[in-house]
Amino acid sequence: MASAFDEMNGAEGEIREAYAALKRWLDTAPADHLALRRSQAELFFRRIGITFAVYGDAESTERLIPFDIIPRVLTKPEWTRLEEGLVQRVSALNAFLADLYGPRECLKAGVIPEDLIYRNAGFRPEMAGRAVPHGIYCHIAGIDIVRTGPDDFHVLEDNCRTPSGVSYMLENREVMMRLFPELFSDNRVAPVENYPDSLLATLRSVAPRTAGSDPVCVLLTPGQYNSAFYEHSFLADKLGIELVEGSDLFVRDDVVYMRTTEGPKRVDVIYRRIDDDFLDPLAFRPDSVLGVPGVVSAYQAGNVTLCNAIGTGVADDKAVYSYMPEIVRFFSGKDPILNNVPTWRCREKDALSYVLDHLPELVVKEVNGSGGYGMLVGPHATRQQIEDFRRKLKTAPDGFIAQPTLALSTCPTFVASGVAPRHVDLRPFVLTGSDRIRIVPGGLTRVALKDGSLVVNSSQGGGTKDTWVLDA
Amino acid sequence: MLSRTADNLYWISRYMERAEFLARILDATARLATLPAAYGGAGNEWESVLLTAGAAEGFAALYDKPTERNVTEFLAFSPENPSSIRTCFERARSNARAVRTALTGEMWEAINGAYLELGRYEPKNMTREEFARFLEWVKSASLAFDGSAYRTMLRNDAYWFSRLGVYIERADNTARILDVKYHVLLPENERIGGSLDYFQWSTVLREVSALTAYHWVYRQSLQPWLVADLLILNRQMPRSLASSYENIVRFLDDIGSAYGRQGVSQRFSRNVLTRLENTRIEDVFRSGLHEFISGFIADNTKLGSVIADQYLL
Predict the structure, then answer these.
(1) Where are the domains of chain A?
(2) Which ipTM was obtained for this model?
(3) Which of A160, A293, A417, B174 could bridge across to A312 with cysteines, CB 3.0–4.6 Å?
(4) What residue ranges carry the coiled-coil annotation (chain A) (predicted)?
(5) What's A209-303's CATH class?
């Protein structure tokens, strides 16, 4: 693995332009200043955590995701290119999904093997041939991006189902502005606080055509025991829409209503944070108590919009991911602006034998896995772990892809030993409405806090940073 | 607002009010139990408090004979008891979490604070003194919640549903005390000047924090019919049935006019209040205190389900 590109120090050890002001500030800030601010930041998060009801008791306090006070900085030109790439990619994802559940031109053209779609757990035959409101499937996408050099951004994953983390993006900025007002006067940082407005505008724009001029939107949560409940309640509050559970909704004559103290109220748009499987016991898992019986039938009748649509998981799949460059080309007619990470599909014989020969240097992922689980990071694995994966790969090669171990870029991070480089990724959130695509500048930066670690997932020792896009 | 939100707000208040009620009756019972037999320490106080709390059946399923230790454990700390102080705080907190955005920050902190603090009490081997301090703390936690709701909530349907929970629970609690203790208030049991009755009556008053209030209102020594009058009909007394219903009627009217629609619960509650207003304590005793109270409890329970049907389901 090559040595990593550092976003502040660059390849030659020079201070890169985006970080110039930040570096001056880091150099002049007294050592104990950072430590003090960090403890204040933690206090702030604990307080809002407590205030917002998630991290109340001793056990779950540990689930506070660590926050690093040194921001990650992108220049305007860097962001502009990312933004163009994201618009292109998410437009292609939506066109791809509309095609899969519609005419299937891309399958006919052989862009992607049919069995990869039809045998995919995320593919929902129930939606085939059904129009969805405004033809949009993935209204809220979280595209995970890694960087390996000054101009090298790669998409690592497309999260097309119910991507989370946006509340951290918003709260991280909130705490930074409180703690470091002086930094925000030295740097022109593009605001992110309009995300809830953008999300609401997106949701309203995709209401069914039968809805009135003031469509009723709700956020459907699995409930308070879900690990992302805090985010659900936070977003509903910021959007000013009702946070509903399955039992708050009911369906009559293919119309969805919520139960209110003033009687049933018709619902037009459901921003659902429940997976397809649990959405409707009549259509999917009959044992689900989280969902709304009949909602799928109301959806099929065109009386309610689900955001995201049912069946977007097929585009979330890591085997499908490996075809994204071809998919983008097919639907946009242009070369992808954002690259994929080179990917070996273990279902292909040659690729498999290459992967088996190079396990110690590769990252192997389960096609349907997420959250950094079910993953082998070759260079950091023990001999035993490698042999375990070899066996798994031989038994079920279809279930895996492999990628080179990327030297993810590093950012200065305030850790126990002081300010040190740590690997980061970036998850921008892309909102697709019927009118336009909206992206707030930046996104959520995740950082692997352990020295040398490449795993940024919060479940495995990752933290987050505020992400700045400099506006001048 | 969502029916579930209204339902949660209503039940949060009921649980917080119930926790306080349990603390009060446990406190009064502990005091009564320490009296020598000649002063009313009849020996069955711990059984009686189970009846007042409406927990006798649940208790019998788990324990043998009621003693101070097992009754206090059951009513205050037992997770097996769906209405123990612990369960009340836990349920209030769980409901509050589910509708966090409908609460003010102060209300949330009052509930969450009580829940966190509860974890610090170690029920095993608690001394009487520690237990008494615990009960004081429960009352102050309930007061903090009540005060935060009163001071910080917008006066809209969320507030009105939350208040309805307080007063329906309170009316039920006061009526239960009367239901269990009615026999000590009846004339045939009266042994004028007997210290036994005096302490029984004063215990009833203590259970609703009304001993001092009694003297201010009636300016005479304890008389059983005046104790009943204070708890049932006196509108100055904030825990009386009449006062609770004045509030219930008011908040239901607020809801009705905000929604532009009156319904069964408005009519039903007004009828209960009118009956209380048109009754004198002599009538209550003449037609039977026990029957009166039983009838009231049934009405109050019915109102709860009428409100649920109309708004919360």
Answers:
(1) 209-303
(2) 0.80
(3) A160
(4) none
(5) alpha beta
